[in-house]
Specification:
7 strands; mainly beta
Length: 121
């Protein structure tokens, strides 16, 4: 399963940079504004998959390199901070990383479900 997901990410994902300490890694994955079906979100705009919350972004990426709390993603020339991430498993196999990000400087006190720590891809 992991091999198949990695092929999809390489073939259809967007190029991004993961900044970890002083090292930059080139990665491919999916990155887009959070979508919702109700008006409970603060900043909404119509998007291809529904209403988009412009304050939060979903990241789906490879298992390696493994990002950590406070790491930065550069996508479309903008800088984002990873605020929450988790490895998604298929049985015992680590398949991909799902993460929640915010644009740097945009929402300094935002936390997802009270989480202050994060790990990522």
């Amino acid at each position: 399963m992991r091999t198949m997901i990695e092929k999809i990410l390489r073939g259809y994902g967007k190029s991004m940079v993961l900044c970890q300490n002083d090292v930059q890694y080139s990665v491919r994955g999916f990155f887009q504004a959070v979508t919702g079906k109700s008006e409970q979100y603060a900043k909404l705009q119509p998007g291809i998959a529904g209403l988009e919350d412009l304050a939060r972004y979903v990241y789906i990426g490879p298992i390696q390199p493994e990002a950590k709390t406070g790491d930065e993603i550069i996508a479309d020339e903008k800088h984002y901070q990873i605020r929450h991430a988790q490895v998604i498993y298929e049985g015992a196999e680590a398949v991909y990383v799902w993460g929640m990000c915010v644009e740097k400087g945009g929402m300094p006190n935002w936390e997802m479900n009270g989480c202050k720590s994060l790990q990522i891809f």
